[in-house]
Amino acid sequence: MKNIGSGKVIASGPDDQVFVNFVDHGATGILAFPRGQLTKKQLNDALQKMHDENRYNQLVLYIEACESGSMFNNVLPNDINIFATTAANPHESSYACYYDRSRRTYLGDVYSVNWMEDSDKEDIETETLDAQYQIVKQITTTSHVMEYGDLTIATADVVGQFQGPDEPSLKTSVPAVSTKDGVPSLDVPLDILYRRLADAEAPQERRRLQAEIDGMIEKRAHLDTVVSKLVSRVASSYEQEQRLVAAKPEAVTQLDCHHTLVTAFSRHCFDFGEHPYALKHAYILANMCENGINANDAVQAMQQVCKRARNSRTIE
Questions:
Q1: How far apart are CA 106 and CA 64, in angstroms?
Q2: Is the model's pLDDT at 68 over the cut of 50?
Q3: Is 214 exposed, middle or buried (0-12, 13-18, 19+ CB in 10 A)?
Q4: Is the CB of residue 56 less than 8 Å from the CB of residue 50?
Q5: Are both 268 and 131 inside the same structural domain?
Q6: Are residues 49 and 180 both part of a single domain?
Q7: Residues spanned by the domain of 281
Q8: Are residues 134 and 270 in the same domain?
Q9: CA 39, CA 19: separation in Å to the nearest integer?
Q10: Residue that terminates a domain, selected from 128, 159, 184
Q11: Does 66 participate in catalysis according to the annotation?
């Protein structure tokens, strides 16, 4: 993204095997960064541009994010030498795992831990991408692992071509991931506070943590209210309002409209990187486009509804 981040880019060429592993928050047609986001349109435009400019021989993406399948379904071609696998289908959360009480955080995500542990114990010089995908799909029970793009890459090429040469001396025997502590990614901040409250013994510490929990719940309710007001302002009828919030779309097809609304919401209402809880409602922006809402009208409504809410609270 121009003028955002470190400025580093993949200086790849037509003979390179490119491997991209993304881990962060996501939502319908969105991948979120600590600041800012990448829309479905931006990602797929960038991939097509890389193909047109011969920036790779083959490109493989592993995406760990909620609703990550929505970034590729119905749009990623199967003839530009790209294979993508995602932690979740277009409609569901990905899950954090391995809670560490001493560090007071989750150390991994189920999908990512599964493929990394598979790479650690298998011979990735002979294991195909498809073989790894099938294993990870089977043992990831918290969400539906998906694949997109050129599936012949997965069946023909081995993991080591993209993740690096195998290191037999580093091989370990690892157990399957326990999903007993699996938590939907957007619930992690609140879940950690509840765990810390359960572990706390000092009354003062318990009161402080409970106040922090109450504050987070209040801020989330505030964001819910803002989005509800926005939907009411945009919808032309009660029936349309219900359609906008009822269910997530099967696919984001109006890419230009969706990119416009995501960018405007992040600018005028809540930045998805700074306020990841807002991603809970991101599907509504896609629904606005899929239901024929004029993008300019929706942006104007955001400017009006979110004017005072923009920087009034921090939503975790």
A1: 14
A2: yes
A3: exposed
A4: yes
A5: no
A6: yes
A7: 200-305
A8: no
A9: 20
A10: 184
A11: yes
Q: What is the pTM of this model?
A: 0.90
Q: State the pairing for strand pair 105-109/95-100.
A: antiparallel
153-203 pLDDT, tens digit per residue, is 999 999 999 998 877 655 565 555 555 568 999 999 999 999 999 999 999
Domain membership of residue 49 (yes or no) is yes
H or E stretch covering 58: strand 58-64
Q: Amino acid letter at 182?
A: G
Q: Where are the beta strands (DSSP E) in the chain?
A: 17-23, 26-27, 30-32, 37-39, 58-64, 82-86, 95-100, 105-109, 146-149, 183-184
Catalytic residue chosen out of the listed positions 25, 258, 275, 281: 25
Q: Please check whether residues 112 and 228 belong to one and the same domain.
A: no
Q: Coil, helix or strand for 158?
A: strand
Strands 82-86 and 58-64 come out as: parallel
Same domain, 38 and 111: yes
Out of 66, 257, 289, 306, which one is annotated catalytic? 66
Q: Which two tokens stand for residue 27?
A: 């939502």
108 vs 40: CA distance, rounded Å: 25
**Tokens coding 105:** 């955080």
Q: Which helix (H) or strand (E) holds 149?
A: strand 146-149
Considering only CA atoms, which of 237, 241, 235, 223 is closest in space to residue 306?
223
Q: Is 97 a catalytic residue?
A: no
How many independent structural domains does the chain possess?
2
